[in-house]
Design brief:
- By secondary structure, the chain is mostly helical.
- It has one domain: Orthogonal Bundle (Ribonuclease iii, N-terminal Endonuclease Domain, Chain A), CATH 1.10.1520.
- The protein is 58% helix and 0% strand.
- The chain has 7 helices and no strands.
- The protein is globular and about 45 Å long.
- It starts with 28 loop residues before the first helix and ends in a 9-residue tail after the last helix.
Length: 151
């Protein structure tokens, strides 16, 4: 079958049919401002999980252990703690993004308090915003986080 990797029987779209990928540096400031806090949190969630995965790559270990370490760091309770750790280091624009992210959520999962869920969403919103607007600043802030040895 044409365009089928490893004979899996799945037909992939032609490159001309794929959507154009938007790079963060292609966005204008007004476009960034129009992105909802929830959408920024969605991006921030993915970016932060990838960052955490990279932190636990060394030393090599079984994938189950690796996965457990990562999950313990990306859960909402931990993200809320990370936000508290970063708050004193934020500039006014970043603090405003955090406020917008915290106010964007209305309903939390049953297992979490609304306060924790809002703080975690605010953290993810900040990560998403900085990923799009200033990756060097994002890296600077993420390196300030104190990751616990075990989750």
């Amino acid at each position: 079958m044409e365009n089928c990797p490893s004979g899996m029987g799945v037909r992939l779209p032609a490159p001309s049919q794929l959507p154009e990928v938007v790079s963060p540096d292609q966005l204008q400031p007004q476009q960034v401002q129009s992105i909802s806090p929830v959408a920024l949190a969605y991006i921030g969630d993915a970016v932060f999980e990838l960052y955490v995965r990279m932190q636990f790559l060394w030393p090599p270990q079984r994938i189950q252990v690796f996965h457990q370490q990562v999950v313990s760091q990306v859960k909402a309770e931990q993200q809320a703690d990370y936000l508290k750790e970063l708050l004193p280091h934020l500039n006014d624009a970043e603090a405003d993004v955090v406020r917008r992210g915290r106010n964007a959520t209305s309903k939390s999962p049953r297992r979490l308090s609304a306060k924790i869920y809002r703080q975690a969403t605010a953290f993810e919103t900040l990560v998403g915003y900085l990923y799009i607007t200033d990756q060097a600043r994002l890296h600077e802030l993420l390196t300030m986080i104190s990751f616990p040895a075990e989750g």
